[in-house]
Amino acid sequence: MRILALGVVAVLLAGCGGAGESGDSAAGVRNETAGVTDTSVLIGTHQPLTGPAAPGYATISKGAQAVYSYVNDGGGIHGRKIDYRVEDDGYNPTRTVEVVKKLVLQDKVFALVGGLGTPTHSKVVDFLTAEGVPDVLVSSGALAWDDPQGSPMTFGFQVDYTREAKILGTHIAEAMPGRKVGVLHQNDDVGRDGMAGLDRVIKDAIVSRQPYDPANADVLPQLTALRQSGAEVVVCECVPAFTALAILTAARLGYKPQFVVSSIGADVTTLTGLLADFGKRAGAEVSVPALLSGMVGAGYLPDVDSDDPWTTLFKEIHAKYIPDVALTDTVVFGMAQAYTFAQALKEAGRDLTRSKLLAAFESGKLEGPGMTPFAFSGESHAGYTGAYVFTVDSEVRTNVVREPMVTDRGDGPVTPAPSSRKTPAEVALVG
Amino acid sequence: MPALVRHLLWALLALVLVVALSLVIDPFTNVRLASVGYYLLAVAGLTVLTGLTGQVSLGHGAFLFLGAYTVGLLVIHAPALPIWVDLLAAAAVSGIAGALTGAAAARLHGPYLAGATLALAVGLPAVTQRFPELLGGSNGLGFTVSSLPPGLVGVVPTTRWQAWVVWATALLALVVLANLTTGPLGRQMRAVRDDEVSAALAGVRVGRTKVLAFLISAVCGGLAGGLQAFLLGTAAPGSFTPALSLALLAAVVLGGTGSLWGALWGAVALVYLQAGAEEFAHGFDLPTDVANFLPQAVYGVVLIVVVLVLPNGVHGVLRKFSRRRKESTV
After folding, report:
1. What SS3 state is found at B209?
2. Measured between alpha carbons, how far is B209 from A53 in angstroms, rounded to an integer?
3. Is A307 exposed, middle or buried (0-12, 13-18, 19+ CB in 10 A)?
4. Euclidean distance between CA atoms B75 and B81, whole angstroms
5. Residue environment code for A271-288, b if the CB has 16+ CB neighbours within 10 A, otherwise e
6. Contacts of A58 in chain B (CB under 8 A)
7. Residue B274's closest chain A neighbor by CA?
8. Relative orientation angle of helices B184-194 and B206-232, to the nearest 10 degrees
9. pTM
10. Distance of alpha carbon A96 from its chain centroid, rounded?
11. What pLDDT does residue A273 have?
12. Tens of pLDDT, residues A326-376
């Protein structure tokens, strides 16, 4: 009997390898033409249409769909219409894994485009690498997407939190010298990568670092601690809902620091809506202009209020396809992302394969609507390389106070971005 | 035939059916099949606690959380361990937590018990914020579980193999559960549920029975969480919200409180009502505000209808139906 039991144990031990030991899976593209026909190409994404991140981000896919409709009405790319499938993951990583498996295994999408969120998307990168599915223009500024060796299928989109924080830190050092700085940050890559950037520039000025958990909508302890530390400047590495909560909580405390907000939480139109909404729920009339006036933020896409040629194009597309959706920086984000993907499809050529799409990204030829160049090359899969800095005036309009700057994710200097950009007419995507 | 043999045969038959089903469906439907498997285990554990012993737990998601994080941490930090060891550890960890909870909860009744367990569901996932280095903060853990035996690589698709592992584990646990609940322990549980005083007078040790019920239930929850981590390769606090705990309890009621068969219908509803309503909403291009809340609304309506029309849940109806047929043939 004992021998039998030992035998069973031996079989179990031998029959199953370690659960954490990965086999020698050959990483590379598989099923080159999945989702591609002569007249269409199927792509997918996961977005928070419900849940905690929905208030800020649910309109991204609307903007993207509008651009794809515009491209399709113009005859598509190389004669192919873009079929864009949006799956709601509620910002819940478990559901992200489920819906991405559905997109890849059941719908057989050609590529995943703009999957949103760090906690969510980080759980599907390994799966997409193993399945050989291009995973491009991830909607998150985490550094993790820029890993050409480990995850060759994955490419970033927006400026990463470290680069952006270096630029914001430079602005603080030059425009507000000698002030004490406090940091309110999300307790994940958003905060970690962001603080890494601040530390490269203004480490000595930081007097307090307060983390928040996106599941807990009370930031009173954090703001109290920041006030007690004597911070005169508060850098917010936050999603929009928490930028709004921080501003409201500070106002409640009678604490008036200079807020400096990273781009993911600095969409002024979204913030205006959130502040009014949160204020109403708390039973108080709030004056949004008074709350937002003076706020400093970062951006990397053309501003909705500007007369940039890209903004003009996006306004036309918006008016034609989604007039019911307010045109915010968030919608522009989705539009710019979709436009960039369509450009890559065009660059990949008539005989579309997954390898050719990846090569198009690595070619470095993509010059998108953004204010700074992409870092895309064989060695880097990072997206935009920099940002500009703006302030909000008393009429809740944004004014650029620092022209676009670029930098790297390491110790490199912060330098002005090249001033020449391609216009939509020069890119000539359709027609 | 002894109960154990009979239950084992049923489980074997069920496994054969699951394997047969997994061979004809596509790889993604296999993921859904496996999801039903681990939800079945979680709901079955809860139905033993709530249905048989009469203790309402609004915090069962916390045990899934423990199981998922145990598997995740072991896969990352002890990669040489095979998955079945990880799953056993998940069951052990949440079993200990369940016994501790049970010891405290055995003194509480009704809303106080519900409140205490709800606190568990709200509080425990927040531990990840306290130890972001180890537990990954809001980001949680991401990992890849490789369990496919070398001989089967390339022969069996990963998701099909995962469905087999999940269902084999779940069915094995269900056999144990069925054996326990149809035996003396099950009688004691029902006695405690119906009247604690008379149960105590009849010689049932009320406190011990209640703690044991919590322990068994937590082991099932932990295993279910471990299987979820095995299947999806993720463990993150955002997946173990109080809403999950409430959904599990609703599934118990929907399927038929106290019945293991009911747990199956509850688990199927949990996976497919959500997915069905979402596909319906997106398929018909409903406005966002409607589409976003349709799954919850459908789930709520189904739950209300079941409670009003079929107070014994789906399985109550099936049982009544099969009894009537038996009588009519006699």
Report:
1. helix
2. 43
3. exposed
4. 7
5. bbbbbbebbeeeeeebeb
6. 288
7. A95
8. 110
9. 0.86
10. 16
11. 87
12. 898 899 999 999 999 999 999 999 999 999 999 999 998 888 799 999 999
Q: What residues of chain B score a pLDDT lower than 70?
A: 282, 285-289, 291-292, 327-330
Domains with residue ranges and CATH for chain A: 40-158+306-384 (3.40.50.2300), 162-299 (3.40.50.2300)
The average pLDDT across A218-228 equals 95
Residue A192 confidence class, pLDDT cut points 50, 70, 90: confident
Q: Does B178 touch chain A (CB under 8 A)?
A: no
- Does residue A286 surpass a pLDDT of 70? yes
pLDDT at B176: 94
Residue type, B159: T
The two tokens of residue A397 are 């309009």
Minimum-distance CB partner of A19 among B81, B139, B288: B81
Whether residue B238 and residue A91 make contact (CB cut-off 8 A), yes or no, is yes
Q: Compute CA distances A406 → A161, A323, A376, B79, whole Å.
A: 13, 34, 14, 41
Q: What is the mean pLDDT of residues A215-241?
A: 92
Of A18, A49, A188, the CB nearest to B138: A188
Q: Does B137 touch chain A (CB under 8 A)?
A: yes
Of B86, B232, B292, Cβ closest to residue A97: B232
Neighbours of B122 (CB within 10 A): 18
Tell me which residue in A15, A106, A126 faces B28 most closely, judged by beta carbons.
Answer: A106
| Separation in Å, CA of A395 to nearest CA in chain B | 30
- pLDDT of A23 higher than 70: no
- Are the beta carbons of B57 and B46 closer than 8 angstroms? yes
Please give the single-letter amino acid code of residue B238: G
Residue A351 backbone dihedrals phi, psi, to 5 degrees:
-90, 85
* Local structure of A177: helix, strand or coil: coil
The band of A4, judged by pLDDT with boundaries at 50, 70 and 90, is very low
Quick check: B66 contacting A, CB < 8 Å?
no
Res. A297 pLDDT band, cuts 50 70 90: very high
Residues of B in contact with A101 (CB under 8 A): 27-28, 31, 159
The Cα B139–Cα B144 span in angstroms is 16
- Cβ distance A94 to B236 less than 8 Å, yes or no, reads yes
Helix (H, G, I), strand (E, B) or coil at A92: coil
In B196-255, the residues whose Cβ lies within 8 Å of chain A are: 228, 230, 232-234, 236-239, 241
A191 pLDDT band (50/70/90 cuts)?
Answer: confident
pLDDT tops 90 at residue A240: no
- Write the pLDDT tens digit of every residue in A67-95: 999 999 999 999 999 999 999 888 888 88
Candidates A39, A41, A64; CA nearest to A137 is A64
Backbone φ, ψ for residue A83 (5° rounding): -100, 110
* Pairs of residues, one from chain A and one from chain B, whose beta carbons lie less than 8 Å apart: 147
CA distance A134 to A125: 10
Integer Cα distance of B316 and B324 in angstroms: 12
Under 8 Å between Cβ of A122 and A96:
no
Can you give the three-state secondary structure of B129-164, one letter per residue? HHCHHHHCHHHCEECCCCCCCHHHCCCCCHHHHHHH
- 8 Å CB contact between A404 and A389: no
CB contact under 8 A, A213 and B138: yes
Q: Is B20 helix (H, G, I), strand (E, B) or coil?
A: helix
For A5-21, the DSSP string reads HHHHHHHHHHHS--TT-
- ipTM of the complex in this document: 0.82
Local confidence band at A15 (pLDDT 50, 70, 90 cut-offs): very low
Please provide the average confidence, as pLDDT, over all residues in chain A.
89
> pLDDT at position B148, please?
81
| Element at A185 (helix H, strand E) | strand A181-186
pLDDT over 50 at A11, yes or no: no
